[in-house]
Amino acid sequence: MTLRLKLDAGKGANYMQNSDESSQETSRLIEERFGAPIIVPELAAGGESLQRMLAHRSCRAFDETSVDDDLLKTLFACALSAPSKSDLQQTDIVHVRDSAKRRAIEALVPSMPWIAGAPVFLVFCGNNRRLRQVSAKHEVPFANDHLDAFMNAAVDAGIVMMAFIEAAEAVGLGCCPISAIRNHPRDVDAFLKLPDWVFPVTGLCVGYPASEGRISHRLPLDVTVHTDTFD
Fold it and tell me: Maximum Cα–Cα distance for the chain, whole Å?
C-alpha cells in the first residue's frame, strides 16, 4: 500500500509538471495568434489537441507523397461523425480523382495554383435532396422548402469540412479550403454531376505539407467574443 502511494505521488508530480508545460505552450500559441496572452488553466487532458487547433495553418504547398485511400476513408468517417442538424446528415463529400475534372476545376480558379499541387481535392456539398426524397417516399409534403433548409445543409457541410481538417491535421496532413468554387456553382455542378438540391459549399486541398506555412493572425478575443449583448 505504501509503495503504491509513493508511485502514485510520483506520477502526480510528473503529471503536474507536464500539465503546467502544456498550459504554457497553449498560452504561447494563443498570444502568437491573437496578439495577447490569456491565462490558461492547468490542463487535465486535451492539451495536445488544443495546441494543434491553435497552431492550425492553411497548407498551400504539398510534397509529392500520395495519401493512402484507406486513410482517406478513415478521415471521411471521422468528418461525417460531426454534429448534424437534427441528425439529418445533409452533407456529401466528392473526392475529385479524375484528372480531367481536376483540370477543369483548377481552370476556374487560376489564382490558386495549390489546387493543382494538392494530391487530394475534395468538394464538400450541402444536400437538401435527401430529406425531400424521404418526404416523397412517405408521401408527405416537404415542410421546409425555405431558406432555412439551405442554411441547414450549408452549415452542416462547413462543420463536416472542419471536422475533416481536424482529423487530417491530427495525422500530419495539411489542408486549404477553397471557397472560390462557389463563384462557379453551375460549372462545378456540371463537372461533378450534382443532382438538384445538392450544391457545392467549398473545395479542400489535402496532402502532406512541403513547408511549415505561417500562422494567420486573428482579431483579439475582446473584439469578437461578446457577453450577453453585442459590444
Answer: 72
